[in-house]
Design goal:
Layout: H1 2-18, H2 22-34, H3 38-57, E1 69-75, H4 84-98, E2 124-130, E3 135-139, H5 144-147, E4 151-155, H6 161-172, E5 180-187, H7 190-202, H8 211-221, E6 236-244, E7 251-258, E8 265-268
Helix pairs in contact: 1-4, 2-3
């Protein structure tokens, strides 16, 4: 079983790094078909061509292969006789050489590189308990261009969180390789809001935005920042909001930016 987890980790990373989910590609195609500015339309076509070349050559579609982030869904009835985290880490080390992945994981102060994308806190594993005896691993590599633009803010309860989100995207979007996917966390505590925002990205999966999300997405696209920040009709391709109750005296808001290359792949082990 341990070796199956190692190999599933390698496959999930390879698939995530060298291709995009069909729904992500469709959103890029739809944006290109309705884009009114020739330069923006050209950049969207370049993105589609980039993905096609990466898939054909089985090479990463971006030079920033990101940090290794995983969602693991494990059945409550499943018992393992090995360290699941270390098996996933071995898969990351193998994938770093095989795919290959750029060694991105460094010590936060010395900046010494681990050379294999593992180390304290890496890979980042989001564990979720589910019913039954199943086990699946989702690779969600996250590059620094978009992650560096992400933020958490503790607003006054009287503030309008959507005004804050639009203003923050206006200031940061051009540096995050737009058009973007945005995970929004509203409420909870300081750290819970950030987890909500990450889960919002993980759970997007092509689901159509609800009325409130669609209105916010339209406001963001009216900013005109466009693909690669060079102007255009599409600044964001998708948006999802997740919420949690918060303290009466606080209003946490987290925005997890994701670039147009919204990479994700799942391997089902059991």
């Amino acid at each position: 079983m341990r070796e199956r987890v190692v190999q599933a980790t390698v496959r999930a990373l390879q698939r995530a790094e060298t291709g995009l989910p069909d729904w992500v590609l469709q959103r890029v195609r739809d944006a290109a078909s309705r884009e009114s500015r020739p330069l923006a339309r050209q950049h969207l076509q370049f993105m589609l061509e980039n993905v096609a070349i990466a898939a054909e050559d089985r090479l990463p579609l971006c030079q920033d292969t990101g940090l290794p982030i995983f969602r693991v869904q494990m059945g409550r009835e499943l018992t393992l006789d090995f360290d699941l985290g270390e098996a996933i880490a071995e898969g990351v080390r193998t994938a770093t050489k095989m795919v290959p992945l750029r060694p991105n994981a460094v010590h936060p102060q010395s900046r010494k590189n681990s050379q294999d994308n593992t180390g304290p806190g890496m890979p980042d594993i989001i564990m979720e308990c589910v019913a039954g005896k199943g086990l699946s691993i989702t690779a969600f590599p996250k590059g620094a261009g978009s992650e560096n633009m992400s933020l958490v803010a503790m607003l006054n309860p009287a503030d309008d969180p959507f005004d804050f989100i639009v203003e923050s995207v206006a200031q940061r979007a051009a540096n995050a390789c737009p058009p973007l996917f945005l995970g929004i966390g509203l409420g909870g505590s300081f750290d819970l809001s950030a987890r909500l925002a990450k889960h919002a990205l993980l759970d997007m999966d092509g689901r159509e935005e609800d009325e409130e999300e669609r209105a916010l997405l339209q406001r963001i696209n009216r900013l005109g920042i466009g693909p690669m920040g060079l102007g255009g009709d599409t600044t964001a391709l998708g948006l999802r909001i997740e919420r949690a109750y918060c303290h009466t005296a606080s209003l946490p808001v987290a925005i997890n930016f994701q670039c147009w290359a919204n990479r994700k792949a799942t391997e089902v082990i059991l």
